[in-house]
Amino acid sequence: MAAALLASTVPAGSAAAAPAVPRIDLTVLVVDDGGGAVGAIAAELKSTGVPYRTVRLGEQGRPVITPAFLSDTVDGRPRAKFQGVVLPSETPGGLSAAEQAALTAYQKTYAVPQVDAYTWSHPGVGLDYTSDGGFSGVLDGVRTDVTAAGKAGPFGYLDGPVVFEDNAPEVAESYGYAGRPREGYTSFLDLPAPGGGRASLVGEYAKDGRRELVVTFAYNQHQRQFRVLARGIVEWLTGGVHLGRSRNYFSVHVDDVFAPDARWDTVRNCTPGDIDCAGGAGEEEVPEIRMTAEDARYAAAWQRSSGFTMDMVYNAGSGEEWKEANGGSDPLTAQLLADRAQYRWINHTYTHPFLGCVQDVGVVPWKCATDARGATRYVSRAEISAQIRDNHTWAAGKGVAVDRTELVTGEHSGLKVLPQQPADNPNLAGALADNGVRWIASDNSRDPAQRNVGAARTVPRHPMNVYYNVGTAAEMTDEYNWIYTSRADGGSGICEDNPATSTCLADPLDPATGYGSYIVPQEARIALSHVVANDPRPHYVHQSNLAEERLLYPVLDKVLADYRALYADNTPIVNPRQSEAGTEFARRAAWDQALAEGRVTAYRIGDTVTVKAPSGVAAPVTAPEGTRKRQLLGSTAFGTAYAGNRSDWTSPDLLQSGVTLTLPAGAARAAARG
C-alpha cells in the first residue's frame, strides 16, 4: 500500500532514469601541427584504413574544437564523434584554453583516450625529469625493450627488442627523452636508466579520469622503430576496436625461371647484349647465368627449412630453346618439375620478348619504331596473346599449377615505359582479356600505384637490389661500385648525376667482402621496411640470384631472422600470391573512396559494433578475440586471428543492411580502462 501510494504521488518524470549508453563513432580526431610525429600517426591511420578527421593548427578558418564539435545527440542517444584523439603533445600550442578544456571534458565524459605524439619527460606526463636519473640524447642504434605491461597490452605482437635505426653513423637520426615513471604511469617501452633501473620512452599516463599515451622520442613515418610500434599505438588509441586492418606482407617473385640471364662484364662495366655495351669481349666470352639442378634442389630444401615459399615466374619457351641448344637435355627443368608442388608459379610469357612498342635499338637509348606515317608501331594483340597462351599451355601439360589470372611480362613490357613509351601498348588490354588475365605485374619504381589495364589491374612489385646480371658476390660488388661511386673513385658517376634519388658511397666496397658486409644488410633493411609497413607489394629478383653463389639467400635469411626475432608468433609474415596482393589493393581503393565520399557509418554502443558501407564495398574491421559477427540466425566467429586481435574485410550477409559485431563481454569497458 505504501509503495502504491508513493507511485501515485511522485510524478513519473521525476524518477531517475539510467543514462543511455553513448554511441562512439569509429573515427579518430587528429590535431596536426605539421610535425613529423603527428604526420606519422596520420599516415598509419590512412594506410590501414582507419577513418580520421584532421584539424590543422595555424590554418586559417580551421574548425574550432567546442563541445558541439566533439559530441551531440543522435536518436535521443548521446554521441561521441571520435573514439580517440591525437595531439602533437599534451598541451599543444595553437589550441586555445577553451579548446583544451573542451577536449578534457569530452575525454572524461566518454572515456576517450589521447595520444601525445611527441613530448618530453616531465611530471606533467607522469615521468621524472631526465635529470633525475633518466636519459636524453641521440637514440641511434639504441636497444629498447617492450615491457611486460606492453606485451600484455597494446604491443603484445612484439617479442624481441626494438633497436632504433642507425643508417648513417655521421647523422643523428633519432632523439628522445627517457624518464623514470611516476604514480599513474605504466611503461610500455623502456631502456636502462644511467643511474640504474629503467626509463620509459612510451607509456600510458592515467590521471583525473583521462588516459594519455605518452611518446617521448622523435620519429617520422618511415623509420623502422615507428613502423614497428605504429600498430600498438593505433590499438591503444582505439581500444582494439576500429575500422581498418593491417598485415606484415612478404612475397618474393623469382623471374626468368628456365631462362638464362646475361652476365655483368667487370672489364667493360656493362652487360653484353645491352645496346650500350658495344666493343671489347663478345657475348660468348662472358657466359650467361642459369640455375643448375643442384641449385633447384637447394631452393626446395631452403624453402622447407625457412618456412617460406617463393613464386617461380617462368619462361617455358626459353627453357625449351636452352634445352635444344644443349643436346636435348635439361636437368634444371627436370628437377624444378619434380619439385613443382613446392612452389607457386606465375606466367612470365613463353620466351620473354618485349611486348610494348617495336624497339628501334639502332640508337642509344632505344626508341619506339614508327611506320611511314610516323605512328608508333606496337607488338600485336595476337603476338602478346600467343606468348601468354603458349606459356600457360606448357605448364598445364607438365602438371604445373598456374593461376591464369596472374601475369608478369618480360621487363614489365606492354605497360608504359618512360620516356620512350608514355602509354601502354593499346593491344595489351585485349590480349589480357583473351587469356583471362586480371592481375599484371608492374615495376613499383616506375609505376607504383595500382591502375586499370582494360579489365585487368596492375600489381606493383618492389625490385630488390640483388642484380639480375650477377652470379657471384664479386660481380655484384663490382657493379654496385660502378653505380654508387663517384667518377673520381672509378665509378660511373650515376650517383653524382642523380643526387635526389641516389647517394654515392664514401669509399668503394671491397670486392671480397662488400656484398656480405654492406649490400646484404642494406637490402635486408630495405625489404624489412616494406614488410612492416602494411605493404602487400611483392618483391622481385631473378633466377640468376639462386644460381652459382646463390646471392639471394643471405638477404632472405636476414629478413626472416630479423623479423622473427622482433615479432611474436601471433604475428607471422603473410606471404600472398600476386592475385591476393592485387585484390588487397583493389579493396583498399574502394574503401578509401567510400571514406572520402562520406559513405561509411560505423559506431560502437556498449559491446555492439555497427558498420555500414556502400553496396559492394568490403569494410576492413579489427576487433578483440572473441568477437562474433551476427547473422540472420545466430552468429559466427568474426575474422581471422592476427597480432592478438581478429580482423577481416567484411560485408553484410544476405538480407542485412550492415555488419553487426558483438564484442566479447566487457570489451567496451576494457577499452575505456586501457
From TrEMBL:
Signal peptide boundaries: 1-17
Alphabetical UniProt keywords: Signal
Keyword Signal: yes
Domain of life (superkingdom): Bacteria
Protein name: Secreted protein
